[in-house]
Write a structure and sequence with these properties.
Layout lengths: L1 H16 L3 E7 L10 E5 L6 H8 L4 E6 L6 H9 L3 E3 L6 H12 L3 E4 L21 H9 L2 E8 L17 E7 L10 H23 L10 H12 L1
Parallel strand pairs: 1-7, 2-5, 2-6, 3-4, 3-5
Antiparallel strand pairs: 6-7
Helix pairs in contact: 1-2, 4-5
């Protein structure tokens, strides 16, 4: 049930977004399609991020998802059918750590947004904030590789104009970085290594795609202001 629903959701989401979005996927030097247990870690700039990251990988990703989304029984049933599991981001959640380890020890890929929610600008890992420890703790305990990823452009998809048919389609960029290991490191060391890797992938993404300042993540308030200026 889970695999079928996951593939159907990914394919349907891809089909629905294709007329409106142009997805660019780049595997940076050293990036590989990981086999076995892996923790996919990415920045988080919109609710659309999991879909586009899911499209970028052939493997199934078991996403950690904030437990608020499970309050609706129908939504909760669908989320479980696509292999997600809930996390309480308001406090340390030992239960979710156990669930994540179970998935990793079964050789699966677990997806984590280590910022603890949607972040942009000065509140983002990409701009200097330290990541939360969940992703690195999972990788250390399971002996799994971390796959650092950066996603850009999805913050524009909140604008109604992004969903008008016809060109230009809204660009979305996903970069998959080289895997890294945090085995043998202390918690703080692992977090510093992860943050540095994500910032390196971010810089490489900007250079590879020749991105402009307007392409980079920003707060909803600043994005709305930029969109109004563009229309004017």
């Amino acid at each position: 049930m889970g695999s079928w629903c996951y593939r159907a959701t990914r394919d349907l989401g891809h089909s629905l977004c294709w007329p409106f979005c142009r997805l660019h996927i780049w595997r940076a030097p050293g990036a590989v399609d990981p086999a076995g247990a892996a923790v996919l870690v990415a920045n988080h700039i919109s609710h659309f991020d999991p879909l586009f990251l899911t499209i970028a990988f052939k493997r199934t990703i078991d996403w950690m998802t904030t437990e608020e989304f499970y309050a609706n029984p129908l939504l909760a049933a669908w989320l479980r059918a696509v292999n997600t599991f809930p996390v309480d981001r308001s406090r340390p959640d030992r239960r979710v750590l156990r669930l994540g380890l179970e998935r990793l020890r079964a050789g699966r890929m677990v997806g984590v947004f280590p910022e603890g929610g949607i972040r942009a600008g000065a509140t983002s890992i990409l701009e200097g904030v330290a990541p939360k420890s969940g992703a690195t703790a999972l990788a250390r305990l399971a002996g799994a590789a971390i796959i650092p990823c950066v996603i850009l452009g999805t913050d524009r998809l909140y604008a109604k104009s992004s969903w008008w048919p016809g060109p230009p389609r809204t660009p979305v960029w996903v970069t998959i970085g080289a895997p890294l290991s945090v085995m043998g490191l202390k918690s703080d060391q692992a977090k510093v290594l992860l943050a540095g890797a994500l910032r390196q992938v971010y810089a490489a993404t900007i250079a590879h795609f020749s991105l402009r300042p307007d392409d980079l993540p920003t707060t909803p308030q600043r994005r709305k202001g930029r969109d109004r200026e563009a229309v004017a």
